[in-house]
Design a protein that fits this description.
By secondary structure, the protein is of the alpha+beta class. The protein has helices spanning about 1-15, 20-65, 70, 75-90, 95-100, 110-115, 160, and strands at about 100-105, 120, 125, 140-150, 170-180. The chain has one domain.
Length: about 180
């Protein structure tokens, strides 16, 4: 019995001194956090890129309303949404029919516009029922809001980045301005 115990102890010492394969073991410890970090950064970058694209497109589209080009050109809600989609589609492959929403409202004052801000994100759901299209007349105050439902691509990060159910994040861009005297 003592001989077997001594032989077993020698094998454990030899195993403890062995250095072959230590790089593989160390890589095994590091690989999971490394790939989680890489995928997380890629997801954040895509969300940021989509948000920036939405902001730029909404700003350009709001300029059409602010300068009166939309009103005098007879652009309705559908044409405004199509214009916004075209501006976003230059940089991203987007599904505008199912995921893009535009809300354009006019107000009597900036205070009224601030007080009337409704949040369509209620209880983990997105409610677009209160949206409208009122581009306003010259010198009226207008608030333009564009919403895009972004599908979080990495399944393990959906619970972290989603702000509505279904693994989606609603991106929002808001512009508030006074129409020019067109």
């Amino acid at each position: 019995m003592a001989g077997r115990l001594t032989s077993l102890l020698r094998k454990y010492r030899r195993f403890g001194k062995a250095r072959s394969g230590s790089a593989a073991v160390e890589f095994g410890f590091v690989v999971l956090p490394f790939f989680l970090l890489i995928f997380g950064l890629a997801e954040i970058a895509m969300i940021g890129f989509a948000q920036t694209t939405l902001d730029g497109a909404a700003n350009d589209m709001a300029r059409l309303i602010r300068t009166g080009q939309a009103q005098t050109g007879g652009m309705g809600a559908g044409a405004i949404k199509d214009d916004l989609c075209d501006r976003m589609d230059n940089l991203l492959a987007v599904d505008c029919d199912n995921n893009l929403y535009v809300d354009v409202r006019r107000f009597a004052s900036f205070i009224d516009a601030n007080n009337a801000a409704n949040n369509p994100l209620e209880g983990g759901e997105f409610d677009e029922s209160g949206f409208g299209f009122q581009p306003g007349a010259p010198s009226e105050i207008v608030v333009v809001r564009a919403y895009y439902r972004w599908q979080v691509m990495t399944p393990m990060f959906q619970s972290v980045f989603q702000n509505i159910s279904g693994g989606e994040r609603v991106l929002v861009s808001t512009m508030m301005f006074r129409n020019e005297p067109f």
